[in-house]
Structure formats: structure tokens, C-alpha cells
Design a protein that fits this description.
Globin-like, 2 domains
């Protein structure tokens, strides 16, 4: 796993040069945006169980056959495995967001995930739909656009650094898109 600093060192070392120029500017930007990054990770990880359970419930509402006898979320142990997998995927997305690098997500979560799901008979369309719902909910938490009307009694107001969060939101979205692409 590489963070932004390790990646800059490895790149400079490979070219036998010092860190400077655009690499140094990227590191300065990474540090200046650090609090937004931490707030985004906190917003997602603090609401992880709600994000995942809502995503799985949404996926099931769209395809009720999943909880019927013979469905992929029937019996309870399969439903528990689905929730567990959603939590794991979301956790690795927050690790990547914190590090500013997708290598931990790729190496420890996505490597072989599609093949494993195929071997277990997990429908890719359902897994992709759950990740899409997790993406929408997570981005709403990062942007602070989640409202009591959307979340109901589970609404939790997150204190976020004010300002433009478009870069961190786009980065988080790219990690979800990476998962979706790996499952498709």
C-alpha cells in the first residue's frame, strides 16, 4: 500500500531524482486538503453500518427474489455474508480515501473479487447495485447533503470543514467506480 508520500518517493527513486516540481506541489495540496480528507473518512466510517444496511435493503427492494427461498440473500447466513462483504468493501474504500491511493483497495479487496463472487454464485448485478447505493449515500455524507428527511431517526449531523469538497468527493466516487468496474 502506498500513500501519497510513499508514491512520490518511489517515483522519484525510480527516476533517480529528488522530489520536486509537480510531485512536491501534489504533496502540498494533499497536506492542505488533509482535514477535508479526514472529515470525509469520518463521515463515511461513522455511518458505515447504516450506509451498508440501507444499500443491501435497497438492493433487495429492487429484487425481492433475493430473499425468497433459493435467493442469494436467503437464509440469514447469506444475508449476513452480504452485509459483511458490503462493510469490507466500504472499509477498503475509506482506507483508499485516507491514503489518497487506490492500491490498498485493489490489492486487498478487488483482486479476485469478481472470480470469487462468480464461483459462489453471487449475481454481479446485485453486487454492483449495492455498491451504487453505497456510493450515493457515502457521497451525500461527505458533501453534507444528507438530511433528516432522507435518513429518518438515524440522521447524524457531521461537522465538516466548510469549503469546496468537490475534489475529495470526486476521489471517493472514483473508488466506488473502481469497485463497480471490478465487479462488472
Amino acid at each position: 500500500m502506498l500513500d501519497a508520500f510513499s508514491r512520490a518517493v518511489v517515483t522519484a527513486d525510480a527516476s533517480t531524482s529528488c522530489i520536486g516540481g509537480s510531485s512536491l506541489e501534489q504533496l502540498k495540496k494533499f497536506v492542505s486538503e488533509g482535514n477535508k480528507r479526514l472529515d470525509a473518512v469520518n463521515a463515511v466510517s461513522s455511518n458505515a453500518s447504516c450506509i451498508v444496511s440501507d444499500a443491501i435493503a435497497g438492493m433487495i427492494c429492487e429484487n425481492t427474489g433475493l430473499i425468497q427461498a433459493g435467493g442469494n440473500c436467503y437464509p440469514n447466513r447469506r444475508m449476513a455474508a452480504c452485509l459483511r462483504d458490503g462493510e469490507i468493501v466500504l472499509r477498503y474504500i475509506t482506507y483508499a480515501l485516507l491514503a489518497g491511493d487506490a492500491s490498498v483497495l485493489d490489492d486487498r479487496c478487488l483482486n479476485g473479487l469478481k472470480e470469487t463472487y462468480t464461483a459462489l454464485g453471487v449475481p454481479a448485478t446485485s453486487a454492483v447495485r449495492a455498491v451504487q447505493i453505497m456510493k450515493a449515500a457515502s457521497l451525500a455524507h461527505i458533501n453534507g447533503t444528507n438530511t433528516p428527511g432522507q435518513a429518518g431517526g438515524r440522521y447524524k449531523k457531521m461537522e465538516m470543514i466548510q469549503g469546496d469538497c468537490s475534489a475529495i468527493t470526486a476521489e471517493a466516487a472514483s473508488y466506488f467506480d473502481r469497485v463497480i468496474a471490478a465487479l462488472s
